[in-house]
Design goal:
CATH topology: Alpha-D-Glucose-1,6-Bisphosphate, Chain A, domain 4
Largest sheet: 7 strands, antiparallel
CATH architecture: 2-Layer Sandwich
Strand content: 25-35%
Distance between the termini: 73 Å
Number of helices: 4
CATH superfamily: START domain
Length: 174
């Protein structure tokens, strides 16, 4: 058997393995990060529960300077919303929960098709308030969706860390 024929067969087997494994990988993902902020819940919630304050700490603007954000009619409370366009595609976010006691929950849509749920929750901590930023979702893409789910923590987690660090800096400075 020639070397070329073995290489083609090996590549075919590798592709088959990648496809078969991809079919059986989980399609659900969950990412979360936490930080303790030395401040009151009121001070934290003033920055998290008000979409007009997000540009002061959101990591997305720093990561993609082409983002153009449009705020909805409501910018705080249940139903508050924003949408955006960027080189990465359009998206929208809508608060589904918003309280000083619990934090916020939101629905997010990327590219008019990828849906996820996000949360920024507050817990009392001896050092102040523990803020946990989390996101869950499902990738419906055949074969590659499971691979994206495996990488989601690596892709989104550092962005959450950056945003939480910036939030801490902004809140503690005031």
């Amino acid at each position: 058997m020639s070397l070329m024929k073995r290489l083609v067969q090996g590549l075919g087997v590798l592709i088959l393995v990648v496809v078969v494994v991809g079919l059986f990988l989980p399609r659900d993902y969950e990412v979360s990060r936490s930080i303790v902020i030395q401040a009151s819940r009121e001070a934290v919630h003033a920055r998290v529960g008000e979409l007009r304050a997000w540009p002061n700490w959101s990591p997305w603007l720093e990561n993609d300077p082409t983002i153009v954000t449009t705020l909805g009619e409501k910018t705080t409370g249940v139903g508050a919303s924003q949408s955006w366009t960027s080189k990465e595609g359009p998206g929208e976010l809508t608060f589904t929960e918003c309280s000083l006691e619990q934090g916020i929950a939101y629905d997010m849509v990327f590219d008019n098709r990828h849906r996820s749920k996000g949360v920024m929750s507050y817990e009392d901590d001896p050092g102040g308030v523990r803020v946990t930023w989390g996101m869950t979702g499902r990738m419906e893409l055949p074969v590659i969706g499971g691979y994206f789910c495996l990488l989601m923590d690596t892709m989104v987690g550092p962005m959450f860390d950056t945003g939480l660090s910036k939030l801490k800096t902004v809140v503690e400075a005031n």
